[in-house]
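To fix ideas, we quote verbatim one protein's residues and fold tokens.
>
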Amino acid sequence: MFDQNDPQPTRSGRLTEAERIRLARLREDAYTADLELPEGTDRWSTWPDAEQGPHPRPSWLVTDLAAADTELGVLKTGKEADVFVIERAVPGGPTCLLAAKRYRAAEHRLFHRDAGYLEGRRMNKSREGRAIANRTSFGRNLIAEQWAAAEFKALSRLWSVGAPVPYPAQRDGTELLLEYLHSSGQAAPRLAQTRPDASELRELWEQLVAALELFALQGLAHGDLSAYNVLVHEGQLMVIDLPQVVDLVANPTGREYLARDIANIGRWFISRGLPPEIADTESLMTHLLVTAGLD
């Protein structure tokens, strides 16, 4: 359960603008809040002040201002972020489950390989660009926010064109709240955890190709695609973990990331028994480049 006394990511140096706004809001809430949180909850809903997800919003999403959030436990710990399950509910009213992905700043583990992904992502201020290049404390915090913002933007864009990704409900600083893909509370398994039979394997491959086509139509590559960041939710393949999404046009090594994505995921399918002539990664690469308008 979330505890406000738990250690939080440390931030030294200048605050980012998003963090400054968040802290100001917390101070204001501390002075003006007259209502007590419902028993057993951890915080009021952060929906009103967050960057909100795209329209049309799903009917299951709770957006009421009277809602409160309760942390139910850890879903996943990772190198750059941890994911928790959150219940958002109005007392006596609607409720929904969300996956809260929280990026770390000072402890960020992707710094050794983030330069390639950050190619083509522009910072508005030269001071911020220098801070990122020098990996100052302020710069590391900016990188964490940039990963979160990039993932939220990519998910919003892809969800809006029908790509199989979880709905991005909101972003508040370095925290993303996403659709929690589950069945009766049980998290959807990663593709790597499944043991599909031959017909299911072929169906999942065809779903993957369709997903990658939608990515390519948007000029995007996942950037770190594998059987560990694809879920199978009620028979449907869902792509997750998109902070490192790559712009195939703006990033000079975009084709290399796309080729690596295809090779990684293709190897998994072949290792599970899909014939290589079906999981033809070279043909798929050519097809996706044409789809993206690059060949």
User: Anything to note?
Assistant: The first helix runs from residue 17 to 32. The chain has seven helices and 13 strands. The domain at 187-291 is CATH 1.10.510.10 (Transferase(Phosphotransferase); domain 1).
